[in-house]
Amino acid sequence: MLPPMFAEKPRRSTERVQRCKLVDRDPRIPPSIDKVAVRVFAADLVGKHWVTPTFWSGAPSPTAGPFRRLSPSGRD
């Protein structure tokens, strides 16, 4: 049984996404919702040169990515 908010027709796009994640069992949905996994799909579809580079994925780390080049005050 679905919670009442998902039993009705979704009104907002965020409600539709949540309903799709809970109800639909289409195998194409999970990779398209994952921001990192969808990059591979997009690169195959439109080409690598159209996909912006990722500095890192996962837990944010102040010693990784572009932040290691910044001074503690935030100014270079």
Kindly name the structural category: mainly alpha
Please bin the fraction of helical residues: 25-40%
**Low-confidence parts:** none
Rg result: 18 Å
Summary?
It is built from 4 helices and no strands.
Describe the structure.
The chain is mainly α and 76 residues long. The protein has one domain. Helices cover 38% and strands 0% of the residues. The chain contains four helices and no strands. The longest helix has 10 residues. The mean pLDDT is 76.
Describe how the helices and strands are arranged.
Blueprint: H1 4-7, H2 13-22, H3 29-33, H4 37-46
Describe the structure using short key phrases:
0% strand; 76 residues; 4 helices; mainly alpha; single chain
